[in-house]
Amino acid sequence: MSLGFKMxxxxxxxxxxxxxxxxxxxxxxxxxxxxxxxKMVFIGLALSCLDILLAIxxxxxxxxxxxxxxxxxxxxxxxxxERLVPLQGILSLFLMTQSRVTNVPxxxxxxxxxxxxxHMNLSPVEIxxxxxxxxxxxxxxxxxxxxxxxxxxxxxxxxxxxxxATVVGALTFCSNWAGPIWWTLxxxxxxxxxxxxxxxxxxxxxxxxxxxxxxxxxxxxxACTALRTHLFVxxxxxxxxxxxxxxxxxxHLCVSTAVLACSLWVENKDRHFxxxxxxxxxxT
Length: 284
Fold this sequence. Notes:
This protein is an all-alpha fold and 284 residues long. It has ten helices and no strands. The longest helix is centred in the last third of the chain and has 50 residues, at 233-282. The protein is globular.
C-alpha cells in the first residue's frame, strides 16, 4: 500500500523519474486518489503501532514446582521488550512515505549502519554519542540544511484534502527530520539490546541528549545576540536560530521524549507483569 502511494505520488510529482517504464502500465496509478491512498497508509500504520504497543503478553499460570521460574520470567521480559523491534519497520515505512523518493534508498544504508553498530558491543555512552552524530549526519544526508529554502513542503499534504496548520506542520516536520526521527528509535533499540543489566541507560541517553541540545541552543542564541547588527543577520543567523528551535522543540522535546516515554512505559509494564507472576509463584 505504501509502495503504491509512493509510486502514484512520484508519477504525479516527478513523472520524468519513470521514463523507460512505459511498458509496465504504470500510467493507471496517475488516476488514483492520492489523498485516499495516503489516509489508508497512515491508518494501517497507526493500527499496526497500536496492536504492538497495546498487546498484552499471554502466559499461563506458572508452576511453583518448576525451579527455572526466574529464568523464564527474564525470558518473558526480554520477549516483551522485543515488541518494540517491529516499530522500527513501521516507522521506516512511514518516514519513507514522507521522504523524497530519491531519499528512500538511504534508509537501507541506515539499516546497514544499525546492524553494524549492534555487533560492535558499544557502551551506552558510546551508543548515545553515536546517535547524536548520526541524527545530525542523516539530517544533512537527506537534503537538509540551515536554509529556509531547502525545506521540503511536497509531502506535507499527504492525506490532507484541505489546509490544516497542525497536520501539515507535523507532516512537514516528519518529512524534513526523517533521518533524526529514525535514529532516535534505532538508538533506543540498541540500548535495550545491549544494556547488559544497566537499568538506567535510557534515562542517561535522554539526559545526555538534553545537555547537548541545551548547549547547542545556548551558543546559537549567544551568536545571534552578539551578531544582531551583522549584515547577514536575516539570511544566515535568523534561519539557523529557527532550525535550532525546531531541533530543540520538535525533535528533542516532542520526538525524543515520546520515544523514550513509550519505551519506559513498556518497561514498567513488564515489571508489573513480573511482580504479578512472582506473586502467583510464591504466594506473596
